[in-house]
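Record type: monomer structure entry
Structure origin: computed from sequence
Chain ID: A
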Amino acid sequence: MFLQLFFAYCALMIVASGLLAISLRNPVHCVLMVLVLFFHMAGLYLTLNAEFLAAVQIIVYAGAILVLYLFVLFLVSLREELHLNGFVPNAWLGRIIAAGLAVLLLAIIPAFILGEKGEWTVEAVRQVTHTKALGQELFTTYLLPFEIAGLILLVALIGGLVLARRDQAGSGDGVDPEPATIGKEVSQ
Protein backbone atom coordinates (compact mmCIF):
# COMPACT_ATOMS: atom_id res chain seq x y z
CA MET A 1 0.00 0.00 0.00
CA PHE A 2 2.85 2.38 0.88
CA LEU A 3 4.58 1.71 -2.44
CA GLN A 4 1.42 2.49 -4.37
CA LEU A 5 0.95 5.77 -2.47
CA PHE A 6 4.61 6.69 -2.98
CA PHE A 7 4.33 5.82 -6.69
CA ALA A 8 1.22 8.01 -7.01
CA TYR A 9 2.99 10.86 -5.15
CA CYS A 10 6.06 10.62 -7.42
CA ALA A 11 3.92 10.46 -10.55
CA LEU A 12 1.86 13.49 -9.45
CA MET A 13 5.00 15.48 -8.61
CA ILE A 14 6.61 14.56 -11.95
CA VAL A 15 3.58 15.83 -13.87
CA ALA A 16 3.24 18.97 -11.71
CA SER A 17 6.93 19.91 -11.84
CA GLY A 18 7.04 19.19 -15.58
CA LEU A 19 4.12 21.54 -16.16
CA LEU A 20 5.70 24.19 -13.95
CA ALA A 21 9.05 23.80 -15.75
CA ILE A 22 7.49 24.77 -19.06
CA SER A 23 5.14 27.44 -17.73
CA LEU A 24 7.20 29.50 -15.27
CA ARG A 25 8.72 32.75 -16.57
CA ASN A 26 12.00 32.73 -14.64
CA PRO A 27 14.46 30.30 -16.30
CA VAL A 28 16.23 29.52 -13.01
CA HIS A 29 12.90 28.51 -11.47
CA CYS A 30 12.28 26.31 -14.51
CA VAL A 31 15.61 24.55 -13.97
CA LEU A 32 14.77 24.05 -10.29
CA MET A 33 11.47 22.46 -11.29
CA VAL A 34 13.39 20.13 -13.60
CA LEU A 35 15.59 19.24 -10.60
CA VAL A 36 12.48 18.35 -8.59
CA LEU A 37 11.31 16.27 -11.56
CA PHE A 38 14.63 14.39 -11.74
CA PHE A 39 14.57 13.52 -8.02
CA HIS A 40 11.01 12.23 -8.23
CA MET A 41 11.95 10.19 -11.29
CA ALA A 42 14.66 8.58 -9.16
CA GLY A 43 12.04 7.86 -6.50
CA LEU A 44 9.85 6.30 -9.18
CA TYR A 45 12.73 4.06 -10.21
CA LEU A 46 13.18 3.01 -6.59
CA THR A 47 9.56 1.89 -6.39
CA LEU A 48 10.20 -0.25 -9.48
CA ASN A 49 13.25 -1.92 -7.81
CA ALA A 50 15.66 -0.28 -10.25
CA GLU A 51 18.23 1.07 -7.81
CA PHE A 52 20.96 1.45 -10.44
CA LEU A 53 18.73 3.59 -12.65
CA ALA A 54 17.78 5.72 -9.64
CA ALA A 55 21.45 6.32 -8.84
CA VAL A 56 22.23 7.13 -12.49
CA GLN A 57 19.23 9.47 -12.59
CA ILE A 58 20.55 11.46 -9.65
CA ILE A 59 24.23 11.41 -10.61
CA VAL A 60 23.95 12.00 -14.35
CA TYR A 61 20.77 13.98 -14.79
CA ALA A 62 20.36 15.87 -11.51
CA GLY A 63 24.11 16.31 -11.19
CA ALA A 64 25.71 16.78 -14.59
CA ILE A 65 22.95 17.65 -17.04
CA LEU A 66 21.25 20.15 -14.75
CA VAL A 67 24.55 21.90 -14.02
CA LEU A 68 25.05 22.14 -17.78
CA TYR A 69 21.61 23.77 -18.10
CA LEU A 70 22.53 26.26 -15.37
CA PHE A 71 25.82 27.14 -17.07
CA VAL A 72 23.99 27.76 -20.33
CA LEU A 73 21.46 29.95 -18.54
CA PHE A 74 24.15 32.04 -16.92
CA LEU A 75 26.21 32.37 -20.09
CA VAL A 76 23.33 33.36 -22.34
CA SER A 77 22.18 36.95 -22.13
CA LEU A 78 18.50 36.66 -21.25
CA ARG A 79 17.84 40.30 -22.05
CA GLU A 80 18.73 39.71 -25.68
CA GLU A 81 16.64 36.57 -26.06
CA LEU A 82 14.88 36.01 -29.33
CA HIS A 83 11.12 36.27 -29.45
CA LEU A 84 10.02 33.75 -32.04
CA ASN A 85 6.54 33.18 -33.31
CA GLY A 86 4.79 30.25 -31.71
CA PHE A 87 4.39 26.93 -33.47
CA VAL A 88 0.63 27.24 -32.98
CA PRO A 89 -0.62 30.81 -33.44
CA ASN A 90 -3.32 30.61 -30.77
CA ALA A 91 -2.70 29.40 -27.22
CA TRP A 92 -6.16 27.82 -26.96
CA LEU A 93 -5.59 25.88 -30.16
CA GLY A 94 -2.34 24.54 -28.67
CA ARG A 95 -4.17 23.50 -25.50
CA ILE A 96 -6.86 21.72 -27.52
CA ILE A 97 -4.19 19.86 -29.51
CA ALA A 98 -2.40 18.87 -26.29
CA ALA A 99 -5.67 17.68 -24.71
CA GLY A 100 -6.44 15.65 -27.85
CA LEU A 101 -3.03 14.02 -27.73
CA ALA A 102 -3.51 13.22 -24.02
CA VAL A 103 -6.89 11.60 -24.72
CA LEU A 104 -5.32 9.61 -27.57
CA LEU A 105 -2.53 8.38 -25.31
CA LEU A 106 -5.01 7.40 -22.60
CA ALA A 107 -7.08 5.52 -25.17
CA ILE A 108 -4.02 3.53 -26.27
CA ILE A 109 -3.03 2.42 -22.75
CA PRO A 110 -5.39 -0.63 -22.63
CA ALA A 111 -3.68 -2.01 -25.75
CA PHE A 112 -0.45 -2.60 -23.82
CA ILE A 113 -0.06 -6.13 -22.52
CA LEU A 114 2.00 -6.53 -19.40
CA GLY A 115 4.23 -9.52 -19.11
CA GLU A 116 7.78 -10.69 -19.08
CA LYS A 117 9.66 -10.13 -22.28
CA GLY A 118 13.06 -11.55 -23.03
CA GLU A 119 15.14 -14.00 -21.10
CA TRP A 120 15.38 -12.00 -17.87
CA THR A 121 12.67 -13.12 -15.48
CA VAL A 122 12.22 -11.48 -12.10
CA GLU A 123 13.95 -14.41 -10.40
CA ALA A 124 16.93 -14.25 -12.78
CA VAL A 125 17.35 -10.52 -12.16
CA ARG A 126 17.18 -11.05 -8.40
CA GLN A 127 19.89 -13.69 -8.60
CA VAL A 128 22.42 -11.57 -10.51
CA THR A 129 21.25 -8.06 -9.35
CA HIS A 130 19.86 -5.33 -11.56
CA THR A 131 23.19 -3.75 -12.39
CA LYS A 132 24.79 -6.98 -13.61
CA ALA A 133 21.71 -7.90 -15.67
CA LEU A 134 21.66 -4.43 -17.24
CA GLY A 135 25.37 -4.63 -18.02
CA GLN A 136 25.08 -8.07 -19.57
CA GLU A 137 22.19 -6.98 -21.80
CA LEU A 138 23.85 -3.70 -22.74
CA PHE A 139 27.22 -5.19 -23.66
CA THR A 140 25.95 -8.35 -25.39
CA THR A 141 22.54 -7.93 -27.00
CA TYR A 142 22.60 -4.16 -27.44
CA LEU A 143 26.32 -3.59 -28.04
CA LEU A 144 25.92 -2.20 -31.57
CA PRO A 145 23.23 0.38 -30.64
CA PHE A 146 25.32 1.33 -27.59
CA GLU A 147 28.37 1.95 -29.77
CA ILE A 148 26.31 3.88 -32.34
CA ALA A 149 24.94 6.11 -29.57
CA GLY A 150 28.52 6.71 -28.41
CA LEU A 151 29.59 7.68 -31.94
CA ILE A 152 26.63 10.06 -32.30
CA LEU A 153 27.58 11.76 -29.02
CA LEU A 154 31.20 11.97 -30.17
CA VAL A 155 30.17 13.58 -33.47
CA ALA A 156 27.97 16.07 -31.58
CA LEU A 157 30.87 16.92 -29.25
CA ILE A 158 33.29 17.45 -32.15
CA GLY A 159 30.66 19.53 -33.99
CA GLY A 160 30.19 21.73 -30.94
CA LEU A 161 33.94 22.21 -30.62
CA VAL A 162 34.27 23.09 -34.32
CA LEU A 163 31.43 25.61 -34.11
CA ALA A 164 32.87 27.18 -30.96
CA ARG A 165 36.32 27.37 -32.53
CA ARG A 166 34.92 28.92 -35.72
CA ASP A 167 33.19 31.67 -33.68
CA GLN A 168 36.43 32.53 -31.92
CA ALA A 169 38.43 32.57 -35.15
CA GLY A 170 35.80 34.59 -37.00
CA SER A 171 35.60 37.32 -34.37
CA GLY A 172 38.86 39.02 -35.38
CA ASP A 173 41.02 39.48 -38.44
CA GLY A 174 43.39 36.69 -37.41
CA VAL A 175 46.15 39.06 -36.23
CA ASP A 176 46.84 39.29 -32.53
CA PRO A 177 47.34 42.98 -31.66
CA GLU A 178 49.18 42.37 -28.38
CA PRO A 179 52.64 41.39 -29.70
CA ALA A 180 52.76 44.35 -32.11
CA THR A 181 51.98 46.90 -29.39
CA ILE A 182 54.44 45.32 -27.00
CA GLY A 183 57.18 45.40 -29.63
CA LYS A 184 56.56 49.08 -30.47
CA GLU A 185 56.65 50.08 -26.82
CA VAL A 186 59.96 48.29 -26.25
CA SER A 187 61.62 49.77 -29.36
CA GLN A 188 60.64 53.35 -28.49
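Annotation 1: The domain at 1-76 is CATH 1.20.120.1200 (Four Helix Bundle (Hemerythrin (Met), subunit A)).
Annotation 2: Helices lie at 2-23, 27-47, 51-75, 91-108, 122-128, 130-141, 143-170, 177-187.
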